[in-house]
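User: Design a sequence. Structure:
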């Protein structure tokens, strides 16, 4: 399965970045039994937060979906750092998506689709997951989106 995932990444033009180190008192991931818990990932690109501000004011839905895609790519980078290879992923169980948005913005679900679509495209059937999409007043470093993940592993 690892080769299939790598092929899909290549076909989608995705190169996984180096996994981002934590910036506070936490670890980027925890393996417990057959589960991998990945801490919230921001839309990091080239070492900085790529999409900032509030969705509905500073960022449109398309820009926020790109932020969610970047979060998903960083989730995969953390998974690879934790597991050594993405082929150990049995199932993406759940993602929690947090969207910094204005009080009247109600399309958080569309924003988090950016991550859901990318993860399903990369992981195939194993990438179909449960999720939450929640509006937030603000996120660390003024990020527009943050997403964490729970993954079942072999």
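Assistant: Done.
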């Amino acid at each position: 399965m690892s080769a299939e995932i790598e092929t899909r990444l290549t076909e989608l033009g995705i190169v996984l970045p180096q996994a981002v180190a934590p910036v506070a008192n936490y670890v980027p991931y925890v393996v417990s039994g057959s589960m991998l818990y990945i801490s919230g990932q921001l839309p990091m690109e080239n070492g900085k937060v790529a999409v900032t501000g509030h969705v509905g004011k500073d960022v449109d839905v398309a820009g926020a979906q790109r932020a969610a895609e970047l979060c998903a790519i960083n989730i995969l980078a953390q998974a690879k750092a934790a597991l050594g290879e993405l082929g150990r992923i049995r199932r993406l169980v759940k993602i929690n998506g947090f969207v910094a948005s204005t009080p009247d913005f109600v399309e958080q679900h569309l924003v988090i689709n950016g991550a859901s679509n990318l993860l399903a495209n990369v992981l195939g059937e194993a990438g179909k997951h449960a999720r939450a999409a929640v509006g937030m007043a603000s996120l660390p470093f003024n990020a527009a989106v943050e997403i964490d993940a729970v993954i079942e592993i072999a």
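Residues 80 and 86 are 5 Å apart (CA to CA). The two ends are 12 Å apart (CA to CA).
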